[in-house]
Amino acid sequence: MEHVGDALAALDVLVLVSPAEGGPLVVLEALAAGIPVVATPVGNLPDLVRRHGELFVSVPIDPGPQQLAVTVRRALAPAWRDNLPGICSVVEQHFSAQRMTNDWTDYLEATCRSAARRSSR
Predict the structure, then answer these.
(1) Which of 2.40.50.100, 3.30.470.20, 3.40.50.2000, 2.60.40.420 would CATH assign to domain 4-96?
(2) In the chain, pLDDT over 90 holds for what percent of residues?
(3) What global pTM score does this model have?
(4) How far apart are CA 55 and CA 87, in angstroms?
């Protein structure tokens, strides 16, 4: 597979039950592709929920097989899948490559301005 979209298209659900992550980009990629996600609340995922609402179905770290199965079934249920278009919109609005590039550029420019002001004193 040459593109992550090819792999995502083969999924019914993305399950990320990692005990630790930084900012799992794969979650955003799956959500942007309209794939429901089951994930542990690790890395920046709790912050995403605080800022943007319930974007994925959360499962505790180290879930048992029964709990994981129930959570996956919830993510695949029509009630959750009906939320996917709105979730895709949130991801596209806040996490597109263009938006992230603009945000990063703004941050770097502000940092450089601040450093320049400090050095000119």
Answers:
(1) 3.40.50.2000
(2) 55
(3) 0.79
(4) 6
